[in-house]
Amino acid sequence: ASAVRGSLQSVLDYAVDEVLEEKGYQVSDKVILFDGVCNLCNSAVNFVLDHDVKDTFRFAALQSETGHALLRKARRDPHDLSTMVLVENGVVYDQSDAVLRIGQQLQLPGNAQAAALVAQVIVPKPLRDWFCTDVVSKNRVKWFGLSGQCRLMDDELESKFMN
Q1: Residues 6+ apart with CB under 8 A from 46
Q2: Phi and psi dihedrals of 34, rounded to 5?
Q3: In the prediction, which pLDDT does 54 show?
Q4: I want to staple 100 with a disulfide (CB 3.0 to 4.6 A). Which of 44, 88, 115, 120 is the partner?
Q5: Structurally, how many domains does the chain consist of?
Q6: Which residues lie in coiled coils (predicted)?
Q7: Cα 68 from Cα 65, distance rounded (Å)
């Protein structure tokens, strides 16, 4: 049974790598995975796009082929839409770690980058994750609603999305 499981995993790994290669994914990419129909998530993506002056991030919906492939590559449930995910240099960050790592790399007003770093160091991860998951993620649809359509793309932005 374990030999069959290993063979199936090898086939799945190959298929995942094929999808990611087709989508142009490089391990050095910093990809933000987000719920493509969540208004809060789409607003967060728009915020990142507006403040990513170094053109650091690429994006994929968690529901997309790319999102599923990146989650499978990281041995995570590809159907888990509970949190924004950052895949940075092949390492997966989720919940508060993803949000704070993203915030530290944006051009933000005032001391917001420093505040993100301080929050990551001072606030215990279980408390940060509780807030991200149990407070925000579980209520985001109730508070912000769902979108039936994706953002309209222009040529400049289209290259940032890996769907």
Answers
A1: 151
A2: -140, 160
A3: 92
A4: 120
A5: 1
A6: none
A7: 5
Tokens matching residue 40: 């809060």
Q: What is the dihedral of CA 9, 10, 13, 19, to 10 degrees?
A: -120
- By residue count, the chain amounts to 163
Quote the distance between the C-alpha of residue 31 and its chain's center.
6
- Once rounded to an integer, what is the mean pLDDT over residues 4-22? 71
Query: Cα–Cα distances in Å, from 59 out to 25, 39, 55, 56, 96?
Result: 11, 15, 11, 10, 18
Q: What is the pTM of this model?
A: 0.83
Q: Is 91 helix (H, G, I), strand (E, B) or coil?
A: strand
Q: Which amino acid is at 92?
A: V
Amino acid at 103: G
Residue 59 has pLDDT above 70, yes or no: yes
Which residue type is seen at 112?
A
What would the two tokens of residue 61 be? 């919906």
Sign of CA dihedral 55, 109, 104, 146: negative
Q: Show the domain range for 103.
A: 1-160
Map residue 106 onto helix, strand or coil: coil
Contact 68, 78 (CB under 8 A): yes
Distance of CA 117 to the CA centre of its chain: 19
pLDDT digits (tens, 9 = 90+) for 71-113: 998 888 988 888 899 999 989 999 999 998 999 899 887 777 7
Beta strands in 16-66, from DSSP E residues, in sequence order: 30-34, 57-61
